[in-house]
Amino acid sequence: MRKKIVAGNWKMNTLLKDGMELAKAVESLEKEKSSDTLVIIAPPYTHLSRVNDLIEGVKLSAQNCASEESGAYTGEISPDMLVSVGVEYVILGHSERRAYYGEDNELLNKKTKLALSKGLKPIFCCGEVLEERESGKLFDVIREQISVGLAGLTKEDMDQVIIAYEPVWAIGTGVVASPDQAQEMHKFIRDLLVELFHQEVAENMSILYGGSCKPSNAAELFANPDVDGGLIGGAALKAEDFLGIVNAY
Ligand code: PGA
Fold first, then answer.
1. What is the mean pLDDT of each run of 10 residues along the chain (249 residues)?
2. Is residue 88 annotated as a catalytic residue, yes or no?
3. Which among 94, 96, 103, 186 is annotated as catalytic?
4. Which of 173, 186, 196, 239 would bridge with 226, disulfide CB 3.0–4.6 Å?
5. What's residue 74's pLDDT?
6. What is the 112 CA–ligand 1 centroid distance (Å)?
């Protein structure tokens, strides 16, 4: 049985004090959650070490990591550094990293492999922009992002990976994919995993939906057979909303 997961991507929001309060609130609500859903939070780098001391049931993720192991890479944070402060997961390939920081599929493949080799579990994001959907290229785009981004990974590596499908047109826009649109793409991704890896990899993979997910729309999205949870942006900044999504299961 694959895991149900709800992960909160805080992006570049909260100062340390607010972030610690939010983490504490998420941790206390997580204890009362109504399902066995795995809850992950991804605060900014500066908060990770302190937040790690405040959480137990909730798991810790970073929002990015370096593609190199160590050395003269000013401003970068390595997977080993993340592991050293208690981080277990790392979001890779978020559309904001792809669009604003030029991260391409090859670089993301390098980051994914390095993260895995250091014991971090990647939350690997993919998603098409509106123009790609409207011109019918959406499946080609996702195929490319996954086949290049996850190239060379073994079946054992894939056991550590979570995939997040985040249509770029739905991120932070208030426009949410319909349950049918989400299911259609999640099914496509699962079938692609059979083709590229193995039936078991596909069956065990948690595929999360991301993009304007809220307590009010989470239940119908999560009701789809191939939607295994969500990667949440805006609604992850309020503990009640975030746990409202967790409890949508
Ligand atoms: P959103 O962001 O929930 O604010 O749309 C999702 C994401 O970018 O992970």
1. 95 98 97 93 98 98 98 98 98 98 98 98 98 97 98 98 97 94 98 98 98 96 98 98 94
2. no
3. 94
4. 186
5. 98
6. 21
Euclidean distance between the first and the last CA atom of the chain, given in angstroms as a whole number: 15
pLDDT of residue 249: 82
The enclosing domain of 102 has a CATH number of 3.20.20.70
Tally the domains of the chain.
Answer: 1
Q: What sign results for the dihedral spanned by CA atoms 76, 80, 83, 85?
A: negative
Q: Is residue 8 lining ligand 1, measured as CB closer than 6 Å?
A: no
Nearest atom in ligand 1 to 212's CA: 5
Say what the pLDDT of residue 227 is.
98
| Side chain identity, residue 24 | K
Active site residue 166: yes
Cα-based distances in Å from 206 to 38, 123, 227, 232 = 11, 10, 8, 15
Question: Which structure tokens are listed for 191?
Answer: 């079938």
213 lines ligand 1 (CB under 6 A): yes
Any atom of ligand 1 within 6 Å of the Cβ of 168: no
The domain in which residue 81 lies consists of 5-246
